Amino acid sequence: MPQPNGYSINSAPSNDGEDDEPLIETDAVPPQCCSARLNLAFLMFLGFSVVYGLRVNLSVAMVAMVNTTDPRPAQNRSIIHACPLPPGTENNSDAFLQPGGTPQYPWDSETQGWLLGAFFFGYLITQIPGGYLAGHYGGSIFMGLGVLGTAALTLLTPLAAQFGPYWLFALRALEGFGEGVTFPAMMAMWARWAPPLERSRLMTLSGSGASFGAFLALPLTGYICQTLGWPAVFYLCGGAGCLWAVFWFIFVSDDPRTHRRISKEERDYIINSIGPQGKGHGWSVPVLPMMLSVPLWAIIITQMCSNWSFYTLLTSLPTYMNDILHFDLQSNGFLSALPYLGSWLFSTLSGVVADSLIEKKVFSVTVVRKLFTLTGMLLPAAFLAALGYAGCSHILTVTFLTLSTTTGGTSSAGVFINQIDIAPRYAGFLLGITNTFGTIPGVVAPIVTGYFTKDHTLEGWRMVFWVAAGINVGGALFYMIFGSGKIQPWAVTEEERAEAGKKRSRSIST
Fold it and tell me: CB-based burial of residue 14 (10 Å sphere; 0-12 exposed, 13-18 middle, 19+ buried)?
C-alpha cells in the first residue's frame, strides 16, 4: 500500500539507520503509453542515436579516407598479411573504390589513432561544468545545444580534412567539447522526471540510443562511402543532428511542473514519487564529501574499466575488420555494427527487468545494480579473451564480438545509472564527474591499440583484447566490493532529514 503523505524513495535516510535501503513508493501509476515521460525518453533515445552517429562515423570513414591502414610501409619490407586476402583481391591496390574526385590522405596508423581519439580530448573538458550547470538550470538547453553544436561542426569535417590532420584533430576535439554536456544533461533531467520505480527502464531506453546509433551509423557509413564518397557521411550526419534539435526545443521541458502538455495525474505522480530531491541543487555542492565517497569512487573506477573495452571496439573495430579480416568497406560497416544491435536490445530489456526486481522487492537497489554490473562486465570479458584466439575465422570473430557487446548492454541497468541512486539531486553533476574519468579510456585506448597493432599482426590484436578483458574483470570486482545503491547522507539537506523524521513519526503513530 502507498507510503503515508507521499513518502518517496528519495527521502532522507532515517537517523536510526543511515545505511537502510530507501522505502519504495507504490501509489497507482499513470500509464506510460503516450505519457510525457515516455515521450522524453524517446526523444532522448533519438538524440543519443544521432550523438553516437556523429561520434563513430569517422571510425568507418577513416578506412575510406586513407588508401590503406598503413599507406607508407617501410622500405625493403614486403607486406605480410595476418590473414589471407579474399580471392581476387591480392593485386587490388585500391580496395575502396569511391566516386571520382573523392580525396584520400596519406595518414599512417599512428596519425589515425590520434584522430580517432581527438574527440575525447574535448569531451573531457565539458563533462563536469555541463553536469553542474544542468543540475542548476535544467538539462534541456544543454543537451539540445550540445547535439546541435556537434552536428554543425560535423558539417565542416571534409573541409578540415582537406586542410590537414591538425585541423581535423582540432575540429574533432571541438565536437567532443560540444557533446560532452549531453549525458550529464540527460541525468540532470531524469533526476526531475524519472519516478524511482521507472528509473531503470526510462534511463536505459534513452541511453540505449547510443548503441542503436552505432548500429545504424556503422553500416550506413560504409554504404555512403562507397556510393556517395566519404564526405557525404558527415553532411548527412550533421544534417540529422540539426533536424533533431528542432524537435527537441519544441517538445521538451526541464521539469514536469513546467511542461505544457503533461496531464495533472502524471505531473503529480512524478513530483510526489521523486520528492524534494527532484529540484535543482542550487549553486553549492558538497564537493569534499563527494571526493571522499566510496560509492562514488566505485562508480568512477568501474565506468573507466568498462569504457576501456567499449571505446576500444567502438573506435578500432572497423580497422580490425579491414586490416586483419579484409572485409570490404560495406561489409566492414555492417559487421562492425552487428554487436551494437544486441547491446541495444539487452540494454533496453535490462532496464525493464531491473525495475521489476526492485518493484517486487526481490532484491534491493544495491543488489540489482551489482547484479547487472557483474553480468555486463564479466561475460564481455570472457568473450573478448576468446576473440583473441578466433584467428582468421570470420564466423568466430563476428560471434564473439556480438556476444561480448550484447552481454555488455546489461550494465546499463547497473553502474551506468547508479549516480541517481546515491544522490538524485546531484545526479547530473556526478555523471559529469564519472564520465570525465570514464572518457579517459576513449583518449588512451585508440592510442594504445595503435601501438600494439602497428605491425598489423594477430598477436598485437590479441594483446588489445586481453588488456580490455583484464580491465573489465578488475572493474567488476571493484564494484562488487564497494558499490552501493543507497542514497548518501551528503546528498540530503538538514531540512529534508527533519521532514523525513516527522513523516516517519506520523507513520508510526498511525
Answer: middle
What string of DSSP letters covers 25-85?
A: --------TT-HHHHHHHHHHHHHHHHHHHHHHHHHHHHHHSSSSSSSPPTT-----SSPP
Q: How far is CA 136 from CA 141, 269, 331, 443, 494, in A?
A: 12, 23, 46, 29, 19
Query: Alpha-carbon distance 452 to 459, whole Å?
Result: 9
Contact 242, 151 (CB under 8 A): yes
Average of pLDDT values for 246-261?
Answer: 89
Q: Are 154 and 245 in contact (CB under 8 A)?
A: no
pLDDT in tens, 419-453: 999 998 898 899 999 988 988 887 788 788 888 88
Containing H/E element for 240? helix 231-251
Indicate yes or no: pTM above 0.90: no
Distance CA 149, CA 152 (A): 5
Contact 306, 408 (CB under 8 A): yes
Lowest mean pLDDT among 98-112, 154-168, 186-200, 404-418: 98-112
Q: What is the pLDDT of residues 114-145, one digit of tens each?
A: 888 788 888 888 989 998 898 888 889 999 99
Count other C-beta atoms under 10 Å from residue 245's C-beta: 21
